[in-house]
Write a structure and sequence with these properties.
The structure is a homodimer of 200-residue chains. With 200 residues, chain A is mainly α. Chain A is 81% helix and 0% strand. Chains A, B: GO terms for molecular function: DNA-binding transcription factor activity; transcription cis-regulatory region binding.
């Protein structure tokens, strides 16, 4: 088979996967874990059941791939957005705002659906635990890079960790209500503390 | 009907309710929202379906009553435990440890199951939103009382809020893994910061 027909097929395959993964995250956000079925996702993505099962044979495989895919895309977007930020003392505030938006966006909501469901679903938990650890490490590294701080300095690692744990708590507080004005006030104070903790 | 038979009946009724509510929380912790059915709860509590429906006609009514009941009991326990703490500079650390345990215990896990389920379940959300607001306010007030601080001082309200949001984030981080050693290290640093923020 000539290369010219193989490449488009690989591309079609990648496009099908991307459509399935994005439909999965949308489905988790709209209908939650129990309302997300592989059939609903296939229909939403406009992909046949056969093609779906070929790429992702189980619901656990589909949802973990979806969260991994979106986490990578989101990290890429955060890097791009952070590159566009002006340097200077305002940078820390703007980075925290970007992260605050990430922890209240669709990826966070979809991931939380999976974390909670995985507590009582062994198959999902086994697929999710390694992914959660990897995404957690990458989020930590990304935050260190965005804030442009040196983790070898005492206190920096702890300050970054506390920021991410605080943002996770704020993400949960935003689940049922728009908590944005309380969150903005709280993060305003946190930014001042963090600036002190991170300043050599 | 003489008072002597009415009172035992009220007591039996209260005991039945308490058994149902405690079985509900246990069920949410073990089986999650979708695995918690009113039938499973009634069996677990050793209560007839008729008696259960008499007290709590819907699943939403049962689970919100269960979380409200356990939140009250837990607040009572926290007050009692805090009263037994020695006064002095160690008190803040010990209060944070008590709160850290509360945010990783069964009530937190059961409440999180409901918050996440309520996102995509209108009936549950309508029952839960007012309860979440009330429990949130009471938790804030209780924390202020346990720390024995004056909220009218600038910064105290924000420091208490940040502590509770951080603890919520740490509770979620503990869902699939035992995160206790990372949490202890992080809270160790947080206690020092909080002591500074709360000191007049």
């Amino acid at each position: 088979m000539p290369a010219s027909t193989r490449v488009p097929q690989q591309e079609r395959s990648r496009a099908t996967q991307a459509r399935l993964l994005e439909a999965t995250v949308e489905c988790l956000v709209e209908h939650g874990w129990s309302g997300t079925t592989t059939t609903v996702v296939a229909t939403r993505a406009g992909v046949s059941r056969g093609a779906q099962l070929h790429h992702y044979p189980t619901k656990a495989a589909l949802v973990t791939a979806a969260v991994a895919h979106l986490a990578e895309r989101r990290a890429e977007e955060l890097r791009t957005e952070a590159e566009a930020l002006p340097p200077g003392p305002q940078r820390l505030d703007l980075v925290i705002d970007l992260l605050g938006a990430a922890f209240t966006g669709p990826l966070f909501v979809a991931a939380l659906e999976l974390w909670v469901a995985a507590r009582t679903d062994r198959e999902l938990r086994e697929a999710l635990v390694p992914l959660e650890a990897r995404v957690g490490r990458e989020m930590h590294r990304l935050t260190v890079a965005l804030l442009d701080v040196d983790e070898r300095r005492p206190g920096v690692r702890e300050a970054v960790q506390a920021t991410l744990d605080l943002l996770r708590g704020l993400g949960v507080a935003n689940l049922l209500n728009d908590d944005s004005s309380r969150r903005a006030a709280l993060l305003h104070t946190w930014k001042r503390q963090l600036a002190t903790l991170l300043t050599p």
